[in-house]
Amino acid sequence: MTPPESVRRVACVGAGVIGGGWAAHFLARGYDVTAWDPAPDAGRKLRRLVDAAWPALTSLGLAEGASTDRLTVTETLEQAVSEAEFVQESAPEKLDLKRDLLSRLDAATPPGVVIASSTSGYPMTDMQTTAADPSRLVVGHPFNPPYLIPLVEVVGGEHTDAAAVSWAARFYEVAGKSVITMDKEVPGFIANRLQEALWREALHMVAAGEATVRDIDLSITEGPGLRWAVMGPMLTFALAGGEGGMAHTLDHFGPSLKSPWTRLEAPELDTELYDAVVAGCEEAADGRSVADLVAERDKGVIDVLRATGRLGREGGPR
Ligand SMILES: NC(=O)C1=CN([C@@H]2O[C@H](COP(=O)(O)OP(=O)(O)OC[C@H]3O[C@@H](n4cnc5c(N)ncnc54)[C@H](O)[C@@H]3O)[C@@H](O)[C@H]2O)C=CC1
Ligand SMILES: C[N+](C)(C)CC(=O)CC(=O)[O-]
């Protein structure tokens, strides 16, 4: 198994929105990228996506030797992976298709090479059922576009070797990604469960004529979204408790979790959950006081407002 730090050749199988974004990311990080996709015009679309992303990636800073010339679009899947040291699968989100494809990739990829799926939510346990060597199959779930959004969620299936999960996590770090490695297989992983919960509520409100699509998006971009680029939902709500932190937030706003207006089944806010959330926020604060966190949040929000041209307009941020 090639050490993650020594990988030079990456294969991207499935080169649509996400596979193309992965190819752009790996190219910008200086890798040789081979890509295969069965669509007749996939190569042209892939090169168009990469060329469109390249100016932004150049402005962000390319790795030494990075070049779009290091992209090779192959005629067959087997050619794409024959010398790959890592494989990123980004085919359609269809379970049977992924099962068959991962088996094909397993058969065609040199032994010991980790194969990661971009799946948005399928457990690897459900996808690795027919592969001859399921031990090297992991989930490496990206966020669109992978060449700009750093997060990748890594998790194995029941038959995945723990070494493959840790290898993949390390490789993604070396390749410039922000990695969350999950110990438990949870459909939808972490971020999709969170953002799709919000999306479900938004769809309910549109269906009930309670909010327009425009107002739903504005409610985030002009509200919580500004904070979420700087601080996640837990620490953000800890600051809602002022000096009392998350403990006060839970005491003050916990009962509203059971409000009749919510459509989402709320967990029982029992002592175990209460203590876990409070302790988790204290750990995340990492010694920073509430005042430190408030200052950090406010600076970050101002930076985001400025970066998105919303600072200083008449009437303040809009
Ligand atoms: N679009 C998004 O925002 C995100 C998508 N994902 C995941 O990435 C994967 C790909 O999604 P998208 O890129 O959005 O879809 P897409 O439809 O843009 O691209 C899928 C590509 O797969 C190709 N393809 C079809 N059958 C194939 C096969 N048997 N083997 C290889 N390639 C095949 C298609 O020609 C197409 O180019 C899915 O698992 C999706 O859940 C993950 C994160 C975000
Ligand atoms: C819409 N989606 C479920 C495919 C989104 C993702 O999986 C991650 C993202 O890019 O938000």
From TrEMBL:
- UniProt main location, coarse: cytoplasm
Location of the protein in the cell: Cytoplasm
Membrane-crossing residue ranges in chain numbering: none
The record's listing under InterPro entries reads: 3-OHacyl-CoA_DH_NAD-bd (IPR006176), 3HC_DH_C (IPR006108), 6-PGluconate_DH-like_C_sf (IPR008927), 6PGD_dom2 (IPR013328), L-carnitine_dehydrogenase (IPR026578), NAD(P)-bd_dom_sf (IPR036291)
Query: At which positions is NAD(+) bound?
Result: G14, A15, G16, V17, I18, G19
Reactions that this protein is recorded to catalyse: carnitine + NAD(+) = 3-dehydrocarnitine + NADH + H(+)
Q: Name one Pfam family in it.
A: 3HCDH_N
Keyword Nucleus (UniProt): no
Q: Does the keyword NAD apply?
A: yes
**Keyword annotations:** Cytoplasm, NAD, Oxidoreductase
**Domain 3-hydroxyacyl-CoA dehydrogenase C-terminal span(s) in chain numbering:** 188-256
Instruction: Give the top-rank taxon of the lineage listed in the UniProt record for this protein.
Output: Bacteria
Query: 3-hydroxyacyl-CoA dehydrogenase NAD binding domain: from which residue to which, for each copy?
Result: 10-185
Record pathway = Amine and polyamine metabolism; carnitine metabolism; Lipid metabolism; butanoate metabolism
Its EC number(s): 1.1.1.108
This chain's function reads: Catalyzes the NAD(+)-dependent oxidation of L-carnitine to 3-dehydrocarnitine.
What family does the Swiss-Prot or TrEMBL record give for this protein? Answer: Belongs to the 3-hydroxyacyl-CoA dehydrogenase family. L-carnitine dehydrogenase subfamily.
How is the subunit organization of this protein annotated in UniProt? Answer: Homodimer.
Q: What is this protein called?
A: L-carnitine dehydrogenase
UniProt organism field:
Streptomyces koyangensis
